[in-house]
Amino acid sequence: MSRVAGKVALITGAARGQGEAEAREFVAEGAKVVLGDVMDDLGKAVAESLSDHALYLHHDVSREESWANFVATAVQTFGRIDVLVNNAGILHAAPIAEIKLEDYLRVIHVNQVGCLLGMKSVIPHMAKAGGGSIINISSIAGLEGAIGLVSYVSSKFAIRGMTKTAALELGRVGIRVNSICPGGIDTPMGRGGSEGFENVDSNAWYRALPLQRIGKPEEVAKLALFLASSESAYCTGAEFVIDGGALAGKRFG
Ligand SMILES: NC(=O)c1ccc[n+]([C@@H]2O[C@H](COP(=O)([O-])OP(=O)(O)OC[C@H]3O[C@@H](n4cnc5c(N)ncnc54)[C@H](O)[C@@H]3O)[C@@H](O)[C@H]2O)c1
Predict the structure, then answer these.
(1) Which of 114, 118, 135, 243: CA 20 to 30 A from 11?
(2) For ligand 1, is residue 88 a contact (CB within 6 Å)?
(3) Which architecture characterizes domain 8-242 according to CATH?
(4) Which secondary-structure segment (H or E) carries 193?
């Protein structure tokens, strides 16, 4: 009940899916949580269900001024920032030969630039408080290529690179930075609801995994909780794969 007691956590993309699960898990373990998203009705409802342990703010991670407001309001409300989960993400499917530059850049701005701005925005507050934990949500698509997902793959590889660079720069001020690389997780994105992906049978892919099923948002939230808590005190610059065995190896025959 108290693995992150007294900590204040900022979670982006927290209106649904993995971000929502992380908000619920962190509050259940004693944290105050500030939820950011662009889906305001959903986000407000999640925060209301967590009563005075949570606050929802409209927050577009791709905009620097939105980060300034998100962080300032979090500090005004709860007094400090101990944890940031850079979770917000979008996916667009199109082959390289056909992708429109604007679609490529839209994904880069949300997934990659959003992660950079998030880290940049919380560093002064965490450093002043003597440390903190930043958790960047990459993907197994940040560890290997994926046909038709060039913008998403580029952004998720970049997140792993940024995570390692940040860990090198920030360890001396007590800030740990790690990434999580989920495989298929049961959210609107993981169920194939993203742009260009509507007709893909994701069930067949999940059945073929070593663990033969899709992952649950709550399972990723447990891993994020470990990285947010002092239980992971010696982890930084690392990536934590949670994928049902998807990357364990290739099947022959
Ligand atoms: N579901 C999967 O299979 C899977 C696998 C690997 C990695 N991921 C990553 O996990 C993270 C969470 O995704 P999910 O599975 O919960 O999907 P999801 O689509 O349910 O949730 C993503 C959330 O991000 C929000 N968002 C989108 N653009 C935003 C912006 N500009 N600013 C703020 N919020 C924004 C959405 O409104 C939504 O609430 C993403 O980074 C995603 O890339 C997902």
Answers:
(1) 243
(2) yes
(3) 3-Layer(aba) Sandwich (3.40)
(4) none
